[in-house]
Amino acid sequence: MNRPQNALSPAKLISNLGLKDRNTFGLDAHAELVYEVNAPEQIPAVIKEIRDQKLTWRVLGGGSNVILPPVLPGATLLMNIMDQDIISSNANAALLAVGAGVNWHELVVWTLENNLPGLENLALIPGTVGAAPIQNISAYGVEVADYINSIEAFDANKQTFVTLHNDACHFAYRDSCFKQNPQRFIVTKVVFKIPKTWRARVHYADLANQFGEHSSPSPEDVFLAVCKMRTQKLPDPRTIGNAGSFFQNPIVSIEQFETLLKVHTDLVSYPDATGKRKLAAGWLIDQCGFKGQRMGNVGVYENQALVLVNHGGGTAKDILVLAKCIQDKVRKEFGISLQIEPNIF
After folding, report:
1. Which of 147, 166, 206, 251 is the most exposed place for a label (fewest CB within 10 A)?
2. Catalytic residue among 22, 245, 269, 277, which?
3. Domains in the chain and their CATH numbers?
4. Which one of the listed residues 174, 176, 230, 269 is annotated catalytic?
5. Are 65 and 45 in contact (CB under 8 A)?
6. Catalytic annotation present for 174
């Protein structure tokens, strides 16, 4: 029987696909089986096939926040859902629905070009729109959760599509229900709520220093300042493999912060919304002497101690051995446990 003209083609299946260009660390990894997902409607059949064959599986977006082993067993879903639409707009806000495969930075640029500012503090963060809520990406005092109205996803447990509104996503610092349940929710679309009334969010110290005390930066000014700072501090993955910030900034109680401050008077920290203090992990690592250090094929970036880099030929094992050395030294010196941010597959 011929397929109806409007019938959706199944997800493309590829065997033994190289992923070196699909992870920003530039790790030489291969996936045993890959499903290229171009539309949400392809997912139920993919998950059924995976479960019928009793395969392990995972979802891979832009590969900007992952550490891949040499071989990814089972099935890997590559999310290439690219639709993008303004679904409603009124005097107060616009709702923007964006597919999981859309490049994050390109979305930020598009919002500014279409007079929908708000996301500019998150410019130049690598990765895809679908990955953004999973990690609840954040930068310069802004979290993506601040602008998320809802998430559309496939619930692999219930075998159905669901819509989770912001409060149901359990967003926290670099965390969400999607990160906590990686084998359950497959993000297909993010609906952003962009307020029509814009205000510059430049209270974060590094960003505030880019502007004078009495300046009134435009959204474009903030965007350019963020891009300038990120370019100066963070390496381009196209030049040297990295996953951006490798460790989360640890959040400590006021009591622990004050105890540390008595010994380390120049301790860098920021107020946290929970009434605690967020310590600068990069500063802690720098104080332990790791900035610019190299261990074989991997190392710590010379301009930002929070970033681990692959100089070429590095493996997941190499990166994790270096990470453990850093964690052990920071724990010994400060009594602080650093949490790895990228997902370890």
Report:
1. 206
2. 245
3. 12-79 (3.30.43.10), 84-195 (3.30.465.10), 235-344 (3.90.78.10)
4. 174
5. no
6. yes
